[in-house]
Write a structure and sequence with these properties.
Largest sheet: 6 strands, mixed
Structural class: alpha/beta
Oligomer: single chain
Helix content: 40-55%
Low-confidence stretches: none
Order of helices and strands: EEHEHEEHEEHHEHEHHH
Shape: globular
Distance between the termini: 40 Å
C-alpha cells in the first residue's frame, strides 16, 4: 500500500508511503489519496485529519520517473487534481461528497515538501514543519507547471511577493523561513512533526464542530466574494449555530468553565 490510513480517536492519519521515491506520487497513489480524504470527509466519527509522509519526507511531488515513462494520471473525479485531492473545495455551505472538504486538514512536514508535494501541503489548513522541512517549487527546473493549486493557494498563504519568489526561482525555503512567512504554522524538532500535528488535530477535535466548520468555511469563502457579500454570508452561515451549539456553550461558561480564557476544561 502506498497510502496508509490510521485512526487515533477522532483523528485520521493519512501517510504517503513511498519512501524510496521520497513519497513522490504516481497515478495509483493519487487515486488512493483522493479516496482517503473523501472517505475521511464522509466519516462522521472523524473530526480532523493529519496528512504526512513516511521515511523522513513529506512528498517530492509527482513521480517524474513515472511521467518520463509515459504513465497517465486518471483523476478520480472532476474535483480531483493530478495528485489526488488537491482540487477539493473548503468553502461550500454544505458537504458534497467528492467535492468538498469541510473538516480541518493538517500537514505534518518532515524533509521535502516540494513541487506537487508543496501543493499537497498547501491543501491543508495548517502545516506543522520539523526543522528538516524544505519547501520549494523544484519542478521549475523541469518545465512541469504547478497544476495542483500551487499558484492559487501559495499567494493566499504567504502573500504575492513571497509566492513569486518561490514560484519564479524554485529555490528551497527552509523550516525557519517558512515559519517566518506563515507557510509553516508550527515549527518543531526533527522527527516530531507527526506527533505534534496529531496533538494539534486532537485539540481541534475537542471543540464544538458545527461552529468550527462554519467559521472555517467562511474564512475560505471570503477570498472569492466581495466584502459585503462575505459579511452577509458569514452571518447566514453562523447564526443558526448560535442556537445549535452556542447556547449550550454559554451555559457551560455561566457554570464556571473556561474562565480567564482557559481552554483546558470546556
Amino acid at each position: 500500500m502506498t497510502v496508509i490510513i490510521e485512526r487515533d480517536g477522532p483523528v485520521a492519519i493519512v501517510t504517503i508511503s513511498r519512501p524510496a521515491a521520497r513519497n513522490a506520487v504516481d497515478p495509483d497513489t493519487a487515486l488512493a489519496l483522493f479516496a482517503a480524504l473523501t472517505d475521511f470527509e464522509g466519516d462522521a466519527a472523524l473530526m480532523a485529519c493529519v496528512l504526512t509522509g513516511a521515511g523522513g519526507n513529506f512528498c517530492a511531488g509527482a513521480d517524474l520517473k513515472a511521467v518520463g515513462a509515459g504513465a497517465r494520471w486518471r483523476p478520480a473525479a472532476a474535483s480531483a487534481g493530478p495528485l489526488g485531492p488537491t482540487r477539493l473545495l473548503s468553502d461550500a455551505p454544505v458537504s458534497e461528497p467528492g467535492i468538498t472538504l469541510t473538516k480541518p486538514l493538517i500537514a505534518a512536514v518532515e524533509g521535502y515538501a516540494v513541487a506537487g508535494g508543496l501543493e499537497l501541503a498547501l491543501l491543508a489548513d495548517m502545516r506543522v514543519a520539523s526543522a528538516t522541512a524544505q519547501f520549494g517549487v523544484f519542478c521549475r527546473r523541469w518545465g512541469v507547471p504547478l497544476i495542483d493549486g500551487g499558484t492559487v493557494r501559495l499567494p493566499r498563504i504567504v502573500g504575492q511577493g513571497r509566492a513569486m519568489d518561490m514560484i519564479l526561482t524554485g529555490r528551497a525555503v527552509g523550516a525557519e523561513e517558512a515559519h517566518q512567512w506563515g507557510l509553516a504554522n508550527r515549527l518543531v524538532g526533527a522527527g516530531e512533526a507527526r506527533d505534534a500535528a496529531v496533538a494539534l488535530a486532537q485539540e481541534i477535535a475537542r471543540f464544538p464542530q458545527a461552529c468550527l466548520r462554519a467559521d472555517r468555511a467562511s474564512a475560505f469563502a471570503g477570498w472569492s466574494r466581495d466584502l459585503h457579500d462575505a459579511l452577509l454570508r458569514e452571518g447566514v452561515r453562523g447564526a443558526p449555530i448560535v442556537a445549535q451549539e452556542g447556547q449550550a456553550g454559554a451555559a457551560r461558561f455561566a457554570s464556571g468553565k473556561g474562565r480567564g480564557g482557559a481552554f483546558e476544561e470546556i
